[in-house]
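Aim 2, interim progress: modelling of the calcium ion-bound target.
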Amino acid sequence: MSVRRFLIDTDTGSDDAWAIVEALCAADIARVEAITTVCGNFPLDLCTKNALLAEDAAGAYLPPVYRGVEHPLLSKKSFAAYRVHGEDGLGGLNLPAPARTAEKKHAVQAIIDLVRETPGEIEFITIGPLTNIAAALTLAPDLAQKIKKLWILGGSAGICGNLTEHVEYNVGSDPEAAEIVLQSGAPAIWITLDTTRGSTEITPDEVERLLASPSPAGRFCALATRRLREFYSEIRGGSETYGVVDSLAVTAALYPEIMTNLVTAKCRIELHDAEKRGYFHFDTAAPEKERNAVLCTAVDAALFKRRMYALLGAE
Ligand SMILES: [Ca+2]
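Predicted structure of the complex, ligand included:
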């Protein structure tokens, strides 16, 4: 089987770091050609630093990291999810600064160049707001036909929000960007928030297994998400499990067989209603020719975990 080629676009919080490590540990089936960073969980500098640190933690190979857009397309909103991921964004590990730095080229230019150089070959996994991707598709509309596939962690098709009651975080953080991507015609599978709840969440036993595993990559994932685990417990009154939602998008992209429910729908992002800005409207009863997105709304949780823990050396 040939090795598939990916680009990961990330607002590197602790579950992004877990997802990056996982992707880099899948070198027998996937090559990550580049990592592009975008504002989302934190200001761009911290997202970029944590992408570099996640690469180091994987102990595999080191794709170039490119800095992307610093604000959502239409706002100067700043991001500060420190309560979710810790002050350093990695569970309070407080690792030394990475030895490497990001490339000089802007992430949006890197995306355009990579796709034009290798049309039809690059699959994107987006685990942050869609600002970089929307900017690239706006500057270079030909990309919509040249991107092999977009695997997007975003939207919701039943369960409501994790940004607000109605809105999923990545879409809601830059709704215009999500709408541009949705309407671009680029082939996309939206891994919705629905997949990230319930039995796909990480259990205390699994954390122990990661911490006891011989793999430094696996131990890093458990330690980097310590604060995330506490956060879930705080907001859910003592919940023992927690979601590493970005990992689901990476695992579904690497192993599409984990997806158990795919639906096509006519979709749009709510841009106008202030209460519901970023809401992911979807209509599965729309005429076939009007349906513009494929949504993955459920995965085989046991298979997801088997594949993920195999990559992290904690089977
Ligand atoms: Ca993310």
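The chain has a mean pLDDT of 96. Residues 10-11, 13, 16, 40-41, 127-128, 246 surround calcium ion (CB under 6 Å).
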